[in-house]
Amino acid sequence: QVQLVESGGGLVQAGGSLRLSCTASKNIFSINPMAWYRQAPGKQRELVATIFSGGNTDYADSVKGRFTISRDNAKNTVYLQMNSLKPEDTAVYYCNLRFSPVVWGQGTQVTVSS
To answer: Do 46 and 39 meet the contact criterion of CB atoms below 8 Å apart?
Structure first.
């Protein structure tokens, strides 16, 4: 069974940057679209960014122009570079397959202070 481990979260001031990483226990990235999701307190989990096997990417309107998703297939790792962070970006961030999610990891907390 695939395991996903997210890391890189933390506390940052508005306008700051963070880089999240997600490593899988098996090579699933090269052939499967991967995505980052987030869940803020009291809200449903939402899709943030997707990277397809061909390298194309897609973003939620709320993060477009500020976040960049990328991957390193050799390292079984997906990244999320987050710039110009806003307090409303505060959430637990998760990665998973875009269309057939496996067991969710523990996520990584991102807190943006105003």
So the answer is: yes
- What is the spatial distance between Cα 29 and Cα 12, in angstroms, rounded to a whole number? 29
Burial of 23 (0-12, 13-18, 19+ CB in 10 A): middle
Q: How confident is the model at residue 30 (pLDDT cuts 50, 70, 90)?
A: confident
> In the numeric block, which tokens belong to residue 28?
């699933």
Contact 110, 93 (CB under 8 A): yes
> Encoding tokens for residue 62?
């709320």
| DSSP state, residue 73 | G
For the stretch 51-69, pLDDT in tens is: 998 899 999 999 999 999 9
Summarize pLDDT for 33-46 with one digit per residue, the tens: 999 999 999 999 99
CA distance 83 to 45: 21
Q: What are φ and ψ of residue 50, in 5° steps?
A: -130, 140
State how far the Cα of 14 lies from the Cα of 86, in Å rounded to an integer. 5
